[in-house]
Amino acid sequence: MRTLLFLLCGYLLAGACYLLVRLFSAIYPAVAMLFPALFTLMWFAVSLTNLIAGMTQAGYSFGEELPLFLLIFMLPVATLYWLGKV
């Protein structure tokens, strides 16, 4: 359930980033490169915090948490970059 909530939050933040790029790219062309990069860094920090919390508080090993980290991090980021190319 926690993984689904993180994915939902990731997709909501990626959607907000995509909308901001669409709104401001005509006025500030650099926004098209800046916002996705900032989202990627921010989402990496959130995903890494979730990984560390899973290892320290829930007692999972790194091997158990790594696939979830990659899932939580990569899906919203890949979707955002894919939408930017379309």
What topology does this entry show?
Blueprint: H1 2-24, H2 31-56, H3 62-85
Helix pairs in contact: 1-2, 1-3, 2-3
What are the defining features of this structure?
transmembrane, 0% strand, 86 residues, 3 helices, membrane, transmembrane helix
What does it look like?
By secondary structure, the chain is mainly α. The chain has one domain. It is built from three helices and no strands. It is elongated and about 50 Å long. The termini are far apart. Keywords: Membrane, Transmembrane, Transmembrane helix.
Explain briefly what this protein structure is.
Helices cover 85% and strands 0% of the residues. It has 86 residues and is mainly α. It has one domain (2-85).
Number of domains: 1
- Low-pLDDT ranges: none
The structure class reads mainly alpha
Helix content: over 70%
Portion in strands: under 5%
Our Rg estimate from Cα atoms comes to 14 Å
Report the total helices. Answer: 3
Order of helices and strands: HHH
DSSP, total strands:
0
Largest sheet: none
Ends apart, CA distance between termini: 31 Å
Name the average pLDDT: 93
Shape: elongated
Keywords: Membrane, Transmembrane, Transmembrane helix
Transmembrane segments: 26-46, 66-84
